[in-house]
Design a protein that fits this description.
44% helix
Length: 271
């Protein structure tokens, strides 16, 4: 059965250039079992044959395996800390530079747009000039295309304040559509964080703020550690790295960071 599972992963990598072997095996098997049930396939070998004979199933499988659970201002405490502490400090410390922000594993863009909205509000209220570059990246090309459209169902905007909804969204055809004022602040691109490289769209090799929340938990420990080290190499001194609630900096890096507020997993790089 292990060989049959590997055959599915190899076929997916060959056809879509996505390597799911870095994911935790338990996550892969759990989600594959759901596809076996949905397609009526008795085992991995049969399912692999089904994928080859039914091209649309490969897209469905990739959609099932990739992680796209998100909404605007997910975990409000984190965004409150970003609004009150992190972003004002970055805007002041790096005011002569372009503020560079990377949302890694951005899914359909809610996190990246949430940060853009906060920056727009800070700039508007404090009347300060700022240049900002925000890039959102994900391994799921379909999710990236959805992010560019910036049209969301009601459950995605439940944490958005009403005045922000009124100011930055238009409600048409049952969807909340983000206006161009916020959309224009964010660039979206395909990127695989398991390459341990920064996205080429950014041109830059360093960022003032990197967010990668609730993504590392899906990878095995070796890959997760490699990703964390790559973020460490990409975030500037006095910059910030934001992880998910169940994620840690990992061995060898913790001494270089301080968590600015308990339960936020927002880490300032001190050295």
């Amino acid at each position: 059965m292990a060989d049959d599972l590997q055959q599915i992963l190899d076929y997916t990598r060959a056809r879509r250039a996505i390597d799911f072997s870095a994911y935790r095996p338990s996550t892969i098997r759990r989600r594959l079992e759901l596809r076996l049930l949905a397609t009526g396939m008795p085992d991995y070998a049969s399912y692999c044959k089904y994928i080859i004979e039914t091209p649309t199933e490969l897209d469905i499988l990739i959609d099932s395996l990739t992680i796209k659970v998100s909404h605007f201002f997910r975990n409000p405490l984190v965004f409150e800390a970003l609004r009150e502490v992190v972003l004002p400090e970055l805007l002041d410390t790096f005011k002569k530079e372009t503020l560079r922000i990377w949302s890694a594993g951005c899914a359909r863009g809610e996190e990246a747009y949430s940060v853009a909205l906060l920056i727009k509000e800070i700039v508007r209220q404090e009347e300060i000039p700022i240049k900002v570059f925000i890039v959102g990246t994900d391994i799921d090309r379909e999710a990236i295309e959805d992010a560019k459209k910036a049209a969301y169902k009601a459950d995605s905007v439940l944490e958005v304040k009403k005045d922000h909804l009124d100011k930055y969204f238009d409600f048409t055809d049952g969807l909340y559509r983000l206006n161009d004022e916020i959309k224009s602040l964010v660039t979206f691109a395909y990127h695989d964080i398991t390459t341990f490289c920064t996205p080429k769209e950014g041109i830059f090799s360093d960022y003032h703020l990197i967010l990668c929340r609730n993504v590392l938990i899906y990878f095995n420990s070796e890959v997760s550690s490699g990703i964390t080290k790559s973020f460490h190499n990409a975030v500037t001194e006095n910059g910030y790295l934001v992880l998910g609630e169940a994620e840690t900096m990992g061995r060898g890096l913790a001494d270089d960071y301080e968590e600015i507020m308990q339960r936020t997993k927002i880490f300032r790089r001190m050295k």
